[in-house]
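Take a look at the protein record below and flag anything odd:
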Amino acid sequence: MRWGWLLLLWLALPGRAEELTPVTGWLSGAFSSAEQAAQDRRFERVELRSREIWRGTTRTTRWIYFEQYLSHKPDHPFRQRIFRLTPEGGGVVRMVEFTMPRAIDFAGAWRTPALLDGLTPDQLSHRQGCDLLLRRLPSGDYEGRNQVGECATDFAGATTLVQYLWVGPRYIRLLDRAYDDTGTLRWGSPGEGYVYLRH
C-alpha cells in the first residue's frame, strides 16, 4: 500500500520530463491539409513543417520550430513560430508561443536547422496571454486552447484571439477564432479548423 501512495504522489509531481515525450514527437514532422482541401473548398492546401530545436537545453523544456505555407508558395511562409513545451503536472503540457526577429530570415529552418544557429531563446518575443494548455484525452491524444480574452490581436478588426489545438500521432488540427471588443466573431478558420495529416 505504501508503494501505491508513493506512485500516486510521484504522478502528481509537476515538471516530469517524460510528459513531454509523446506530444513533442507528434508535433514534429511534415503535415499537409491537402486531403481536407480536396474535399472542402473552404480550405486552402497548406503545408505545415516543424522540428525540435535546441535539444538538451533542460530536461523539462523542449523547443519546436513551426512553419506554415501555401503549397504553391513554399518559399513564402505565412506563419513562423517557436514554441516552448514544459510539463505542468497531471498530464498537462504548457505550449508557449514566441515570435522571432526578422522571421523570414529563418524560412526553411525545418529543413536546414543551421539557419537557427545564430538565434537564441533570449532573442524571442513571448506572445503574452497566448500560452496553450494541452491536456491528455482518454484516447491518448492532446487538446488545448489559450485563455479566452487573454491573447491580443489587432488584425482585421479583431482584438482577441482564441486558438485551439488538437494533436495525435498522425495529425495536427488548428482552429483560430478572433473576436472584437463586443464579442463578435471577425475572422477565423472555416468549420472545425484546418486538419494537417502527417506525410
Summary: The chain is about 10% helix and 40% strand.
